[in-house]
Amino acid sequence: MTRKIPFYALSAVVVFLYILYALINNYILDPGAETFLSYKTDLELELKPRIWLTVMYIHVAFACVAMAAGLVNFSSCTYAKRRRLHRVNGYVYMLSVLIVVLTSGYMAPYATGGKVSSMGFNLLNIYWLIATSTALIHILKKRVEKHRRWMVRSYAFCFTNMLIHLISYVTHEWLGFTYVGGYTIGVYGAIALLLVIPELIFRAGNAQDRAESNKFRI
Ligand code: HEM
Q1: Which domain holds residue 73?
Q2: pLDDT attached to residue 78
Q3: What does the pLDDT look like over 104-120, one tens digit per residue?
Q4: How many angstroms is it from 37 CA to the middle of ligand 1?
Q5: Which uninterrupted H or E stretch holds 57?
Q6: Exposure string over 80-109, b if 16+ CB within 10 A, otherwise e
Q7: Which of 54, 145, 159, 190 has the most C-beta neighbours closer than 10 Å?
Q8: For ligand 1, what atom is nearest to the CA of residue 64?
Q9: Domain for residue 208, yes or no?
Q10: Taking the model in full, what pTM does it have?
């Protein structure tokens, strides 16, 4: 039990700082997303900045709600002692994911990197909906462990934007790719990592459980 606290606490700090960054950056420092939009020079569809920005504001707001709601529900405190809070908050998370997916569906055709990035976002949208619905179906059928695992897979995608920007920063600033090239690598790099990381977390958990149970064997 004590082993799990640092990982949760670390995740909480990362989530808190990222939400703060997303809110300050998108609503205060760069509300017109001027830097980001300046890279959308060869779009096939005409981007209407006011509509795109409104959709982006909704997207960011609900992405932050999803990140916060998910974090609260992973706390052992909520699912062990406050079942009702866990359930209500769980539906807040699912509704937020749905809104992020819908707004992402609007923005995907205008994605930086054109059709290639756009395809990545659409695949991600489909997988995120499937993972989140699978988690819901499992808990409605009282399969707690499977629900937990699918929620971890779903929650991982709350880190999509953070990873895209981290990867595109490294590829653009350090490895010399163009911004658009780096962003496209960021989209697929984030998808790959966010599919793999939850499975690594489960393996590490299984290995720890085996080590624990061996300790008590005579
Ligand atoms: C949950 C955490 C997320 C946050 C905080 C977030 C935030 C943002 C922000 C600030 C933008 C504006 C452009 C930028 O600065 O990157 C954006 C764009 C976008 N996001 Fe998200 N997002 C999140 C998750 C997702 C997920 C899971 C998807 C896909 C299912 C997604 C799809 C998109 C798309 C398609 C765009 C437009 C990209 C472009 O125009 O190139 N986002 N997001």
Answers
A1: 4-157
A2: 72
A3: 999 999 999 999 999 99
A4: 13
A5: helix 49-74
A6: eeeeeebeebbebbbebbbbbbebbeeebe
A7: 190
A8: 5
A9: no
A10: 0.92
Which residues line the pocket of ligand 1, CB cutoff 6 A? 22, 26, 36, 56, 59-60, 63, 66-67, 100-101, 104, 107-108, 110-112, 121, 124-125, 128, 157-158, 160-161
Instruction: Tell me how far the alpha carbon of residue 121 lies from the centroid of ligand 1, in angstroms.
Output: 9
d(CA 86, CA 95): 14
Cα three-residue angle 38-19-135, rounded to 5 degrees: 105
Q: How far apart are CA 113 and CA 123, in angstroms?
A: 15
**Residue 187 placed within a domain:** no
Segments of the chain scoring below 50 in pLDDT: 1-2, 218
Residue 214 lies in a domain: no
In a domain, 72, yes or no: yes
- Name the domain count of the chain: 1
